[in-house]
């Protein structure tokens, strides 16, 4: 049986490694295709993961080249040693939402330390169908479609050379992660697909997203409360809604967002470029030490935005100021084109004006015919440096 073969070869590899202590430990490989041949590889994947996770030397769960159906699956650590999932093939989620009864995501990873996800393969969320595309809006009883990749409490990990396509909801969602890097992580979804955020981060620390291409129907990257020390560098975002912090202040006791560095990114044909948003009225919070630098905007509707009257579905009282405090924010070396006349809009809270906002070397041209580009401010007095176009508020 396949299972036997894997274990026997694993033992040989271990013996081999034990006899050569000078050699850097190679991974013990657990190939999912050796764990049965059902059409849905869910069970095989779980069994391979369990064996790999129990390995006391570094291990790899291998999904070889090919296309596989994978039903919703939850895999968890802690594991006995470093573990890698190597996806060479393409994994497809069930198309039908009814298959996700009892699951809020397609693939959930819990409590893994020293984790790697790589292999050049693709996670296809099969969210193209119109029936998957809906939004709950105000409806609190509506069941949200599943997130494609859910990372819960993953530490010291890297996800690289992986593609996520056509998720039904967010592509990747991080919660409680620490020291996790995404590199050469490609996301593609139709620009009209609802809520297909590229990467959403919440309550996580030391997260890097570098050299990655993200195209989706919602925020390319969104940072929820409790995101700290986040680096976003060398990312292209097109299409989508840009790189967004918030929305903050929607619930009680939100943790602050701090230490965000967005650098050397290109944002094209999106609704927003870089944005910080908070709900009016409601609850308090803090967003601080946030820096956007060396960013190219191409045909972006709203390139630079602070929006403290964010209120979709008209769910809130826009007249009552936001209780979220925003401070130590900089926008430097940002150039390109705006698709609407208001190229820069900084709308801060009347109760808690934004503090320590720095704006330097901005060159944003409006490409339409409704007059010159504008720089609008309320409840903020930015410090300006260098050339500022449109002329400063
Ligand atoms: C972060 O995780 C990577 C990948 O596992 C590891 O090489 C690195 O040492 C970790 N950094 C810290 C500060 O722990
Ligand atoms: C900026 O990002 C691009 C990818 O979008 C990369 O090719 C380039 O090397 C980066 N430049 C610097 C100076 O890091
Ligand atoms: C500008 O972006 C809009 C979508 O926001 C798109 O429809 C349009 O084709 C883009 N124009 C160019 C010249 O790329
Ligand atoms: C602003 O943020 C930067 C980056 O985190 C930090 O080094 C600096 O000390 C902060 N400035 C203030 C006045 O807090």
Overview of the molecule:
This protein has 393 residues and is mainly beta. The strands form 2 sheets. It has a 16-stranded parallel beta sheet that branches. Strands 4-7-10-12-14-16-18-20-22-24-26 form an 11-stranded parallel beta sheet. The protein has helices at 2-19, 42-54; strands at 28-31, 59-63, 67-69, 73-76, 83-87, 90-92, 105-110, 115-118, 122-124, 147-152, 155-165, 172-175, 178-188, 199-202, 205-215, 221-223, 228-237, 243-248, 257-268, 272-278, 284-300, 302-307, 323-338, 342-347, 355-366, 374-378, 383-389. One 2-acetamido-2-deoxy-beta-D-glucopyranose is lined by residues 259, 289, 328, 356.
How do you describe this structure in short?
With 393 residues, the protein is mainly beta. 8% of the residues lie in helices and 49% in strands. It has helices at residues 2-19, 42-54; strands spanning 28-31, 59-63, 67-69, 73-76, 83-87, 90-92, 105-110, 115-118, 122-124, 147-152, 155-165, 172-175, 178-188, 199-202, 205-215, 221-223, 228-237, 243-248, 257-268, 272-278, 284-300, 302-307, 323-338, 342-347, 355-366, 374-378, 383-389.
For this structure, the quaternary state is single chain
User: Beta-strand level of the residues, as a percent range?
Assistant: over 45%
Question: How does CATH name the architecture?
Answer: 3 Solenoid
Uncertain segments: 1-24
Q: CA-to-CA gap between the ends?
A: 72 Å
Question: How many individual domains?
Answer: 1
């Amino acid at each position: 049986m396949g299972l036997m073969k894997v274990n026997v070869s694993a033992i040989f590899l271990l013996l081999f490694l034990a006899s050569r202590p000078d050699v850097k430990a190679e991974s013990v490989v657990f190939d999912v295709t050796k764990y049965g041949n059902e059409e849905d590889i869910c069970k095989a994947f779980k069994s391979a993961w369990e064996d790999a996770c129990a390995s006391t030397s570094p291990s790899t769960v291998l999904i070889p080249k090919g296309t596989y159906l994978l039903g919703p699956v939850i895999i968890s650590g802690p594991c006995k040693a470093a573990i890698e999932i190597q996806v060479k093939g393409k994994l497809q989620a069930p198309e039908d939402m009814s298959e996700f009864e009892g699951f809020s995501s397609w693939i959930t990873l819990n409590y893994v330390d020293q984790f790697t996800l790589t292999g050049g393969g693709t996670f296809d969320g099969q969210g193209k169908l119109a029936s998957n595309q809906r939004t709950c809006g105000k409806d609190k009883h509506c069941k949200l479609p599943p997130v494609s990749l859910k990372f819960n409490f993953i530490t010291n990990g890297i996800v690289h050379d992986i593609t996520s396509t056509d998720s039904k909801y967010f592509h990747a969602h991080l919660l409680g992660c620490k020291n996790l890097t995404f590199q050469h992580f490609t996301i593609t979804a139709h620009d009209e697909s609802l809520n297909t955020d590229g990467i959403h981060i919440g309550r996580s620390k030391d997260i890097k997203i570098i050299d990655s291409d993200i195209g989706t129907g919602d925020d390319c990257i969104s940072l929820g409360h409790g995101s700290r020390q986040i680096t976003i560098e060398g990312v292209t975002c097109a299409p989508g809604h840009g790189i967004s912090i918030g929305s903050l202040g929607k619930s009680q006791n939100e943790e602050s967002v701090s230490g965000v560095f967005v650098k050397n990114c290109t944002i094209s044909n999106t609704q927003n470029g870089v944005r910080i948003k908070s709900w009016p009225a409601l609850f308090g919070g803090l967003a601080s030490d946030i820096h956007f630098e060396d960013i190219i905007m191409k045909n972006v509707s709203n390139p630079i935005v602070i929006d403290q009257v964010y209120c979709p579905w008209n769910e809130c009282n826009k007249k009552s100021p936001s209780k979220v405090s925003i401070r130590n924010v900089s926008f430097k070396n940002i150039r390109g084109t705006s698709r609407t006349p208001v190229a820069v809009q900084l709308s801060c809270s009347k109760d808690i004006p934004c503090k320590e906002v720095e704006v330097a070397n901005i060159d944003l041209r409006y490409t339409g015919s409704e007059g010159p580009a504008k720089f609008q401010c309320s409840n903020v007095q930015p410090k300006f440096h260098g050339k500022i176009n449109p002329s400063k508020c």
